[in-house]
Amino acid sequence: QKEVEQDPGPLSVPEGAIVSLNCTYSNSAFQYFMWYRQYSRKGPELLMYTYSSGNKEDGRFTAQVDKSSKYISLFIRDSQPSDSATYLCAMSGGGGADGLTFGKGTHLIIQP
Amino acid sequence: SAVISQKPSRDICQRGTSLTIQCQVDSQVTMMFWYRQQPGQSLTLIATANQGSEATYESGFVIDKFPISRPNLTFSTLTVSNMSPEDSSIYLCSVEKGYTFGSGTRLTVV
Description:
The complex is a heterodimer.
Chain A: E1 4-5, E2 11-14, E3 19-25, E4 32-38, E5 45-51, E6 54-58, E7 61-66, E8 71-76, E9 85-92, E10 101-102, E11 106-111
Parallel strand pairs in A: 2-11
Antiparallel strand pairs in A: 1-3, 3-8, 4-5, 4-9, 6-7, 7-8, 9-10, 9-11
Chain B: E1 4-7, E2 10-13, E3 19-25, E4 31-37, E5 43-50, E6 56-57, E7 68-72, E8 75-80, E9 89-95, E10 105-109
Parallel strand pairs in B: 2-10
Antiparallel strand pairs in B: 1-3, 3-8, 4-5, 4-9, 5-6, 7-8, 9-10
């Protein structure tokens, strides 16, 4: 079993829909959880950063962490065609002092 | 957040040769990280580079294949040595905290 599981998709939704992206993990030592967006031929761009369990909102994006279930989610409201990209979850135990463990990424397509 | 400049952005190399990738950060950072993203795969940590000490390599990665230099707090290089087609990947650097990444080096080995 991989440390971080993420459905690679593709996930295709119509413009304006709410998108839900998810990852599960097995290492209970993970305390820091991130979501990255990666456009084709670009480096990953940090979208959301969350410590431990709970919710965090930033504009159209909401990140949720449930450490008891080892499950994290990213919600995108009012999705736009420009949100079409690969979304990667990542996590670490050390809060910046450790390298990150990534999911495989979900390829998201927002249909105009 | 730190801004990272990475170069080259892409290269096509002959098997058996070596390529050195550079990352320059606009602020001083203690730790830099090097990742590999193979086609269709996620990012995998290669090594952690602290200034003033030897790099720490993850399981499956060795110094002879991926030597790293960290001469100061704003710069690091990763060399991919004795390349084979299996080394064709995107290589990325990152820094502590901030969690920002360079734009990546797309390497094709022929």
